[in-house]
């Protein structure tokens, strides 16, 4: 076969491997759904729990890049602090070694078609028979099959090194340059991982090259070290334009892998001998292609496990160091700032289910903005004789900000609705589109309320003491309802929760009726007409906010548990 044909075979085989990995990862993530987030919520201040969480998530979704991007997203949304994030990143680095073991033990020890074809055969019915209602399982099985078919083709496409002595001599020149060759192979590992956007795919390439005799154990191990650095690029790119603390999480990932690589490079030979000791069949001293894949998988695992054990005791100190490396530049909303939704990509294993987690956090953030707007209005209401142009300007900016959030998040949800979604995710998208619209309406009502307060100040309108106290009570009720819906945005509302929401709505409507009666009585007693009309306008907007909150609660109730 000519050189061009061999190159096309290698590239095509790698493409099939990557596509299989993408299909399998998408199927796993669709099947996992919100369980990924539930596992992350298991995290506490316990650093060991955080490490285990990162390991579990990565083992489930088969992508350390997806895990670290998810971490950056959660840190950016304020759901995770830097110390927790570092713990999960440490675990994710261990979790990603599982893929190498699967490829090493199955891809090179048994006939690939014995795994791939049956997997596709079992997956096919799930994909096309709707009554089975588990399309995601079909995708996992078919993706698994395609992955190993690609690996099998890749093994066959890489020519026998013994038939190309001139190339072997050329590679040996690079391999026998001591420290220089080690740094060179580390750099090549970084470049390969950046190009294929997957450390798992880069690992498969390395295993195949080593198995075929193109590189020896030390060179392959150096490539693996480079791949650990290259995989951090995805999270780094995802952190661009995010908050300072999210940037810190991505930089922590880079520093952790770079520092780990440095100390292993210093102790490179003893580390290789440790791997030989742990895996039967010496490789470092004597070339043994049959045992090379298992040795490399063990090298990768031992590297990440020891690196994690070294960093666990100093997580807090490491976090403090990262905070100095990436100083805070101010993440508060500045005057004239516009909203820009940046969805975080994780490379070839991107999936709408992963995006939905990010959208959910942005919706929570939008609810927090709405709650802050209402709190600002209440502060203005409590000080009716104080000039408030600054507060009005602030709420105007926030109202425009919620408009931008509605537009961008809704458009994004519409776009991912066109993707291949499981039924639960499709329903969740529809519910979130409605919730986003309701939150934007709450923002509009808050702005209208403060405009009414400004008019009250300019014209010197004064409510009766009874009306003022009643309105304060009404506002507190509405504030509690807003906070109730905000606190339930990251979870499904149960029957009990929905009953509480309906009780809130009933109280809001009853208070509205009571306020109307009070205003009518004040008018009969000779109160200023425009003052009472302004009061009724406030009541109307408060009652509208209650309507928006119950709509949000009902939408959340419609999202079925996964």
Core attributes:
single chain; 562 residues; mainly alpha; Methane Monooxygenase Hydroxylase, Chain G, domain 1; 23 helices; 78% helix
Verbal overview:
With 562 residues, this protein is mainly alpha-helical. Among the domains are: 163-325, no CATH class; 351-558, Methane Monooxygenase Hydroxylase, Chain G, domain 1 (Up-down Bundle), CATH 1.20.58. It is built from 23 helices and no strands. α6 (97-107) packs antiparallel against α16 and α12 packs antiparallel against α14. The radius of gyration is 29 Å and the shape is elongated. The mean pLDDT is 78.
Element layout with pairings:
Elements (H helix, E strand, L loop, with lengths): L2 H30 L2 H7 L5 H15 L2 H13 L5 H14 L1 H11 L4 H17 L6 H23 L7 H11 L3 H18 L2 H13 L5 H14 L1 H7 L5 H23 L1 H11 L13 H20 L3 H11 L26 H30 L7 H28 L6 H37 L5 H23 L7 H30 L4 H30 L4
Helix pairs in contact: 1-8, 3-5, 4-5, 4-13, 4-14, 4-18, 5-14, 5-16, 6-11, 6-16, 7-8, 10-12, 11-12, 12-14, 12-16, 13-14, 14-16, 14-17, 15-16, 18-19, 18-20, 18-21, 19-20, 20-23, 21-22, 21-23, 22-23
So how many helices?
23
> By helix and strand content, what is the structural category?
mainly alpha
- CATH fold-level topology of the domain at 351-558: Methane Monooxygenase Hydroxylase, Chain G, domain 1
Find the count of extended strands (DSSP E, 2+ residues): 0
CATH architecture tag of the domain at 351-558: Up-down Bundle
Report the radius of gyration as a whole number of Å. 29 Å
Ends distance: 51 Å
**What's the helical proportion of residues?**
over 70%
Q: What does the average pLDDT come to?
A: 78
The CATH superfamily of the domain at 351-558 turns out to be Phosphate transport system protein phou homolog 2, domain 2
């Amino acid at each position: 076969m000519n050189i061009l044909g061999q190159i096309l075979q290698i590239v095509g085989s790698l493409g099939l491997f990557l596509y299989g990995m993408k299909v399998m990862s998408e199927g796993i993530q669709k099947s996992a759904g919100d369980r990924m987030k539930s596992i992350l919520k298991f995290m506490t201040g316990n650093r060991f729990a955080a490490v285990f969480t990162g390991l579990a998530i990565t083992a489930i979704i088969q992508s350390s890049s997806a895990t670290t991007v998810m971490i950056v997203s959660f840190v950016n949304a304020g759901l995770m602090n830097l110390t927790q994030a570092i713990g999960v990143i440490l675990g994710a680095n261990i979790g990603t070694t599982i893929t190498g073991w699967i490829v090493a033990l199955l891809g090179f020890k048994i006939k690939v078609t014995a795994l791939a074809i049956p997997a596709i055969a079992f997956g096919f019915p799930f994909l096309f028979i709707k009554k089975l209602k588990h399309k995601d399982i079909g995708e996992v099985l078919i993706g698994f099959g395609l992955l190993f078919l690609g690996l099998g083709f890749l093994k066959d496409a890489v020519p026998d090194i013994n038939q190309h002595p001139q190339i072997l001599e050329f590679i040996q020149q690079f391999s026998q340059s001591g420290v220089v060759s080690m740094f060179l192979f580390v750099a090549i590992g970084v470049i390969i991982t950046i190009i294929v956007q997957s450390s798992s795919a880069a690992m498969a390439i390395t295993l195949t090259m080593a198995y075929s005799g193109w590189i020896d154990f030390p060179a392959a191990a150096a490539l693996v070290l480079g791949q650990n650095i290259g995989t951090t690029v995805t999270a780094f790119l995802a952190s661009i334009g995010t908050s300072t603390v999210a940037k810190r999480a991505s930089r922590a990932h880079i520093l952790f892998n770079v520092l780990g690589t440095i100390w292993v490079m210093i102790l490179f030979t003893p580390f290789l001998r440790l791997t030989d000791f742990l895996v039967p069949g010496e490789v470092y001293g004597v070339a043994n292609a049959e045992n090379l894949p298992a040795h490399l998988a063990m090298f990768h695992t031992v590297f990440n496990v020891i690196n994690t054990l070294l960093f666990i005791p100093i997580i807090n100190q490491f976090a403090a160091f990262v905070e100095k490396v990436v100083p805070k530049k101010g993440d508060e909303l500045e005057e004239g700032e516009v909203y820009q939704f940046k969805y975080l990509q994780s490379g070839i294993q991107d999936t709408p289910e992963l995006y939905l987690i990010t959208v959910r956090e942005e919706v929570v953030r939008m609810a927090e903005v709405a709650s802050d707007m209402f709190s600002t209005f209440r502060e203005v209401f409590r000080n009716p004789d104080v000039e408030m142009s600054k507060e009005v300007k602030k709420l105007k900016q926030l109202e425009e900000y919620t408009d931008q959030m509605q537009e961008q998040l809704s458009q994004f949800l519409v776009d991912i609705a066109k993707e291949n979604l499981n039924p639960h995710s499709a329903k969740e998208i529809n519910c979130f589109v409605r919730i986003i619209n309701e939150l934007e309406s709450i923002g509009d009502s808050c702005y209208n309320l403060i405009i009414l307060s400004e008019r009250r100040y300019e014209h010197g309108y004064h409510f009766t003491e009874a009306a003022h106290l009643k309105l304060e009570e009404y506002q507190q009720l509405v504030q509690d309802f807003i906070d109730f819906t905000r606190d339930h945005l990251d979870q499904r509302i149960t029957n009990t929760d929905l009953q509480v929401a309906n009780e809130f709505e009933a109280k809001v409507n009853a208070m509205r009726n009571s306020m109307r009666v009070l205003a009518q009585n004040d008018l009969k007693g000779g109160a200023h007409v425009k003052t009472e009309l302004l009061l009724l306008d406030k009541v109307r907007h408060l009652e509208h906010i209650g309507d928006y909150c119950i709509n949000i609660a009902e939408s959340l109730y419609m999202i079925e548990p996964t």
